[in-house]
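Anyone up for a design puzzle?
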């Protein structure tokens, strides 16, 4: 442990000497964060990596196992436009703290998410293919600056919308490695949480999902099934449109991302906006005082806490954010979401290629998520025509059923694709960590 940290110090010193005249050091160790009592319980580094005219901000959490050999997981959030800190605080911090077997590199991408910014106006544009290409270059540049991680096995992780970009990124890396681009990236696999893959497929499964989850009646489902003939998004079929519209109306009040979760409609004039975590006058004046008694029953409250905490100067100073580069920061940047160019409508062709790549692929879905339904995920996995290695079965943790799991074998080699759906699950983490931070700061 001590020899490892001293070798890191020597390396940092060398880096300082070598790059001292070229650029200023662009990464820092963060030991404390405003609101958190004492030192952080993990080793955190933040920094910037330049990719063309974009300055990408990242958070790096080092493994407490064997950082020199443990996997390096590059994790990008969905949205598009949600900050890396969203993943760190709400999605996998508990896993990091419990398992401590991976180095995790959280990237603020696309540009405009979190603290990443462009230095010229043309560089603000982002699309699925641009983000994949930039993330690949980011990773290579990061490895050059952290050469002691150069040979670690690399995994790509993402959730939700980013599910469409991650296989493109994997393909870019494979193509780059084959073309001899340096440094070579030792890619081993991907982990996709509730991955957006194909909009039509996802939209088409929502009716089936609502029926399977008993959100709509058998009669309503049968009527839609007859009218739509399996195609629930056929806008040319008036009877189908009508049947689907009445289903939509029936489930309108259900929280799409978490069907058993509270909709929290009454705390916000526009529930959809509330879910985005807007820091607006309404939330400042109403939600915060109201939830000030510690009654954080609605997840949206935690998201608002995030938007407040991350805008404290003391927090940004502690994270070494470059002053003046980002005016106001949000958990998810909805301007980005609306300006983004959605240029890959279907990621299945990328997945087809990846099944022949020898990569390990883990796909997991929450079975209460109606936005990227587990049914859609199962459908595109089935379309890859893989051989089933172990059949669909319940998966238990300490005698409690926790989900369902199967393993599929790839066509040309013995690597596994694992799929699972997690019972009662939408996002992994409790948000007590962030609540603690904010309450301490106040
Ligand atoms: C649509 O519904 C109406 C009323 O039930 C029916 O008469 C008509 O045949 C349906 N159209 C098609 C194309 O099925
Ligand atoms: C959000 O992203 C856009 C780029 O799409 C950027 O111009 C903007 O500064 C970002 N931040 C906010 C708070 O809108
Ligand atoms: C899949 O691989 C083939 C053969 O290498 C290539 O021509 C094609 O462009 C790839 N598809 C995607 C979506 O990358």
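Challenge accepted. My sequence:
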């Amino acid at each position: 442990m001590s020899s490892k940290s001293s070798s890191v110090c020597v390396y940092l010193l060398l880096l300082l000497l070598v790059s001292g005249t070229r650029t200023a050091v662009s990464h820092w160790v963060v030991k404390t964060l405003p609101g958190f009592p004492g030192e952080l319980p993990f080793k955190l580094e933040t920094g910037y990596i330049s990719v063309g005219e974009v300055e990408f901000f990242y958070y790096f959490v080092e493994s407490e196992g064997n950082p020199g050999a443990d996997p390096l997981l590059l994790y990008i959030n969905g949205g598009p436009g949600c900050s890396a800190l969203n993943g760190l605080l709400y999605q996998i911090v508990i896993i990091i703290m419990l398992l401590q077997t991976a180095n995790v590199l959280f990237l603020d991408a696309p540009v405009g998410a979190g603290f990443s910014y462009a230095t010229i106006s043309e560089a603000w544009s982002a699309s699925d293919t641009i983000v994949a290409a930039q993330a690949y270059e980011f990773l290579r540049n990061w490895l050059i600056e952290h050469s002691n991680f150069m040979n670690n096995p690399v995994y790509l992780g993402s959730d939700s919308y980013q599910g469409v970009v991650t296989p493109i990124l994997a393909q870019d890396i494979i193509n780059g490695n084959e073309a001899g681009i340096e440094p070579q990236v030792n890619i081993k696999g991907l982990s996709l949480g509730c991955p957006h893959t194909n909009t039509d497929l996802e939209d088409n499964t929502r009716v089936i999902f609502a029926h399977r989850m008993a959100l709509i009646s058998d009669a309503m489902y049968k009527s839609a099934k007859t009218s739509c003939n399996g195609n629930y998004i056929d806008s040319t079929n008036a009877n189908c449109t009508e049947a689907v519209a009445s289903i939509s109306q029936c489930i309108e009040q259900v929280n799409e991302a978490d069907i058993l979760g509270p909709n929290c409609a009454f705390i916000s004039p526009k529930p959809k906006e509330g879910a985005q975590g807007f820091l607006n006058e309404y939330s400042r004046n109403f939600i915060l005082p109201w939830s000030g008694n510690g009654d954080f029953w609605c997840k949206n409250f935690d998201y608002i806490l995030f938007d407040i905490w991350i805008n404290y100067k003391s927090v940004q100073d502690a994270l070494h954010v470059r002053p003046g580069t980002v005016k106001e920061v949000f958990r998810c940047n909805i301007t980005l979401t609306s300006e983004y160019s959605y240029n890959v409508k279907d990621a299945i062709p990328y997945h087809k290629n990846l099944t022949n790549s020898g990569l390990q692929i883990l796909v997991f879905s929450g079975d209460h998520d109606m936005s990227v339904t587990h049914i859609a995920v199962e459908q595109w996995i089935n379309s890859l025509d893989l051989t089933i290695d172990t059949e669909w079965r319940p998966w238990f943790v300490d005698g409690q059923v926790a989900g369902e799991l199967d393993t599929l074998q790839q066509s040309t080699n013995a690597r596994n694709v694992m799929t699972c759906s997690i019972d009662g699950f939408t996002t992994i983490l409790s948000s007590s960590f962030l609540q603690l931070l904010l309450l301490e700061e106040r």
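A detail worth pointing out: The domain at 25-198+344-441 is CATH 3.40.50.1820 (Rossmann fold).
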